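User: quick one, fold this
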Amino acid sequence: MSDTAAPRPARRVGALRQLWPFLRPHRALALGWLVFLALSSATTLVLPIAIRHMFDQGFQHSSMAAIDATFLGLFGIALVLAFATAARYFCITLLGERALAAMRTQLYAHVIRLDVGFFERSRVGELISRLGTDTEVVQALIGSGISVALRSAVMLLGASVMMVWTSPRLAGLTALVIPVVILPIIAVGRRVQRLSRDSQDRLADAAAIANETLNAAPAVKAYAREGIESGRYGDAIARALSTARQRIGTRALLTAAVIVLFFGAIALVLWVGAREVLENTLDPGVLAQFVIYAIFAGGSVAGLSEVWGDVLRAAGAMERIGELFTELPEITSPAQPQALPTPVRGALRFEHVAFHYPTRPDAPALHDFSLEVKPGETVALVGPSGAGKSTVFALLLRFYDPQSGRISLDGVDLRAQTLPSLRGAIALVPQETVIFSGSAADNIRFGRQDAGDAEVREAARLAEAHEFISALQNGYEAELGERGARLSGGQRQRIAIARAILRDAPLLLLDEATSALDAQSEAAIQQALERLEKGRTTLVIAHRLATVLRADRIVVMDGGRIVAQGTHESLLAEGGLYAKLARLQFAA
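Assistant:
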């Protein structure tokens, strides 16, 4: 997925073939739709025959009985047509809903399994646009567009056959104008398809801006950027509107041209037929029947030209969706995984690891990094920003794989383990806590879905979160709001700590776990963390050195390398970077 505005090649309708896997499980509905489509089309094609019978038998012979019989037959035809049309609508609409539900479900499941690198180079707003707007465009095509297109095609074919059967000579004259009608559709259709894709892209741009700014509303307000961000969004919408205007104008021109050309040609043919009636070489009933079939054919051509724009627009949307389905995760579980020992001890080993982020290939994040952590040991990683501390966590979680070197857990290479088993052995307390819309209990249970209510409450107590959760209206069932809007930063962090406690994993990763807490809460949390760390291998990232004094070992990093390691006292005595950081912090 690219952010660039470079022009893309014209997209093909063949992209709609990707819909087949989602339609195939619902063959019964598709068959029902086709049966009722055939019935409604056949019923419609019978109407002109009844009209001809009324002209030839009723009007010319002044037969009231023939007229009565004709209108009674027309009412019966109307009943069959009403039933077939309603059944056809039910089948195709339900088919569209089911197919699109399956597509959305599968698309989301596919996207959520892509690796972290994909989300770094993609915009969440554009992903949401593809999950929402693009699938709605495809749904509109399945639910109505395909039905209209196929009905129009069947009616055009049926009306054409009946026109030949009614008057071969007039039908032959009509056939001469078909190339005149088809050529504008082909010529203008390609431009409509390109504009349809561009229109979806511009809407995705606007969605990305809205998602970005609405998720950062406090920052927008703090810098008084409401007007600026409104302007950015308005400009994006204006660009989308401009592209949509071109698309709509082109489609309108296409529809008008087809209708004028087709009905102009039909009028010419009917003029010839009218002259034949006056010359007594053609019966009035035959001409009336031919006129109605010609109207059916003309309406079908107009319907096809109009729905063609929807087809092209859906093809563009389906191609955007298809691009997501073709994305494959670079980080996957091996075909023949190696199981971790039971129970997991938590022995970690980094051997000459070198790594750079895909988005920054010229800036190594880790360089010849080697570190061994014993089971149950607490190791603190300290150093200036950009030293590579968070990269160590990212590699442990296998968000990325190193370009060279080896990382192992209990002697098993991380790349030889399945992702669920590896990540299931790790509990993470991130610096920026993510709170999901839902209850407090649901957010704590995010650490272990099968945990009972008593376990959730015990984890909250250990994380010093029970008191403020109990004070909420509805307690543990209280809704925390989107992104935890109803909680303070410290409360959100305690929820994250409760998740880690509930997970009860042998390897604990703490990334500035107490950075958002006040002094009183931090003291209580430190006690909870000390209890949590017992019997577990723990890696701690901390900028405040006071929070890592209890670590068994402190590893000092700079520029992606380990420059020193030891206890707080030994590192102070050694001097160097750690002593410099300590003087800056403790002197303050």
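User: anything notable?
Assistant: Confidence is low (pLDDT under 50) at residues 1-11.
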